[in-house]
Design the sequence.
């Protein structure tokens, strides 16, 4: 017999339950070890036949298929029916398009290791503590869920997952909003600067205009004093005052010119 023809497995007494299936040699991950064989029956017939062993009524060789039929491994079955359950299996089941089921290695299995797959048994009734105990798991692995039944995920676990997802979504939204606000904030800052600049220019323009008006008023007052005669007589009597008045006119005129220069600027 060539190595390719040698079986992958041997039957031995299991440390977990009854008879077990062990690797006869190293089994590479992904290997189809054997097909789960047996008679194909209807669900109603499976209900009629159950239990197989009155002394162990919750032990079953039934395997439900996706086309609503059942493989009864106790009739015309092979060694695959002796593969025990584990919550941390090294094998899995694979159903093909033509509804054949194979036991496939999930990982490299060393020679002498027992083969397991997760039964994931499904019941139509409510899963009570008593029912869980009836299908009690004996695998003893760290992640053992205590039963061979397929249990629904706890609401708290679902809530935790949803909470994390919601928090991640909120964080992403906040980051996106912050990025979109940066250009707006920059634009607002520039607008404030422009407004302040315009306000300063307006204030300077107003101050210059007021200074010009004040200077023009002084010049007009000085000119009227010369024409009226009364201040003129006084100035004639006091020539120094006339020279002062002329000096004031010159300064006032210069002030007006200077004011026009600032306005132009």
Sequence:
């Amino acid at each position: 017999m060539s190595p390719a023809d040698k079986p992958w497995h041997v039957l031995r007494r299991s440390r977990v339950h009854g008879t077990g299936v062990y690797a006869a040699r190293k089994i590479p991950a992904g290997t189809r070890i054997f097909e789960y064989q047996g008679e194909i029956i209807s669900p109603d017939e499976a209900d009629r036949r159950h239990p197989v062993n009155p002394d162990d009524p919750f032990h079953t060789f039934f395997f439900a298929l996706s086309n609503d039929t059942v493989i009864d491994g106790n009739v015309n079955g092979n060694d695959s029916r002796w593969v025990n359950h584990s919550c941390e299996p090294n094998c899995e089941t694979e159903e093909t398009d033509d509804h054949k089921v194979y036991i496939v290695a999930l990982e490299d299995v060393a020679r002498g290791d027992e083969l397991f797959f997760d039964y994931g048994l499904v019941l139509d009734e409510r899963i009570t503590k008593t029912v869980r105990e009836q299908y009690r798991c004996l695998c003893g692995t760290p992640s053992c869920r205590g039963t061979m039944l397929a249990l629904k995920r706890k609401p708290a676990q679902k809530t935790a997952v949803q909470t994390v997802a919601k928090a991640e979504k909120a964080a992403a939204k906040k980051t996106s909003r912050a990025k979109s606000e940066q250009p707006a904030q920059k634009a607002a800052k520039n607008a404030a600067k422009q407004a302040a600049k315009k306000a300063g220019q307006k204030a300077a323009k107003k101050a210059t205009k007021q200074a010009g008006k004040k200077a023009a008023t002084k010049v007009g007052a000085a000119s009227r004093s010369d024409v009226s005669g009364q201040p003129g007589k006084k100035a004639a009597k006091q020539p120094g005052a006339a020279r002062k008045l002329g000096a004031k006119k010159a300064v006032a005129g210069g002030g007006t010119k200077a004011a026009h220069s600032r306005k132009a600027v």
